[in-house]
Specification:
By secondary structure, this protein is of the alpha/beta class. Helices cover 39% and strands 19% of the residues. β8 and β9 form a beta hairpin.
């Protein structure tokens, strides 16, 4: 496994491989868990060369305290990637990606970015897309892998590729979960054992909706809101949406075109999850 700290060295190394090698790219912010590793494994199965990035991107945090608290475990992460035989890790410092005083670009992703995370984390998607565009231009991957847990992000990255007029294929990988159903997340490390138990309500509600889809959208939203109030958990939003445009729906669409998305805070740790129906 080769580790690069600068884009110039990485670009030079990748140039030696020529155009015939397929490159898979897995962007991460570190604090790796089995969800991230599933992305790396998918890339290794599909592509000749796999590049993983480890970079906590400051421009996608609208909360400075959230950025400060975000777990940073580089040595531990490198060990995990080494065990998977990941080919390349790109772990840059800020000044390798951003010029001094550089801010996030302003993108127009239409309806994809106005709801849910776009509403509750203003500027987040501009920051995320800014750094992903930089990574794509540096690495020029054949395929890039993203988790379906961040469904809105996944759809926005697909739109970004279209706007870049790029041929990069974006691959969504199903959410990896803990035994109690909690979606794997780097933020889970900030929860106590009791917090993890409480947070299982998120998946329990999503699963209830999957089993009881016939009850209809309005009743399912009411059920989720009631359960969170009953458990005294701060429900930031619960939206039942068209998974193609990320807008709320009143009637079910075709199979796999509907998604139920939840964001909640447990012990002040913000968690998101979804289920596609």
């Amino acid at each position: 496994m080769k580790i690069f700290k600068t884009k110039s060295n990485l670009i030079h190394y990748l140039s030696l491989y020529g155009q015939k090698k397929s490159i898979g790219f897995v962007p991460t912010m570190g604090a790796l868990h089995s969800g991230h590793l599933a992305l790396v494994e998918a890339s290794k199965a599909d592509c000749d060369l796999t590049v993983a990035s480890i970079y906590v991107n400051p421009t996608q945090f609208n909360n400075a305290n959230d950025f400060k608290k975000y777990p940073k475990t580089l040595n531990y992460d490198l060990e995990k990637l080494q065990k998977l035989d990941c080919d390349i890790v790109y772990a840059p410092l800020n000044n390798d990606l951003y010029n001094e005083e550089e801010k996030a670009k302003n993108f127009d992703f239409g309806t994809l970015s106005i709801n849910m995370e776009g509403k509750f984390r203003p500027g987040h998607f501009n920051g995320m897309a800014t750094v992903i565009e930089k990574f794509f231009n540096i690495i020029n991957p054949t395929k890039a892998y993203f988790g379906e847990k961040d469904l809105q992000q996944l759809q926005i990255v697909k739109m970004l590729v279209i706007q870049m007029q790029s041929q990069i294929k974006i691959v969504g990988i199903p959410t990896i979960r803990e035994k109690n159903g909690l979606a794997k997340s780097s933020r889970n490390k900030l929860l106590s054992n009791n917090g993890r138990k409480k947070a299982s309500l998120i998946f329990n509600c999503l699963n209830y909706c999957r089993v009881n889809k016939r009850q209809g959208i309005h009743k399912l939203k009411e059920y989720i809101q009631h359960r969170f109030k009953e458990e005294d958990i701060n429900l930031e939003y619960c939206e039942i949406i068209n998974s193609k445009n990320m807008l709320p729906i009143k009637r079910w669409r075709e199979k796999n075109e509907n998604a139920i998305c939840i964001a909640a805070k447990v012990e002040e740790v913000r968690l998101i999850d979804n289920i596609i129906l």
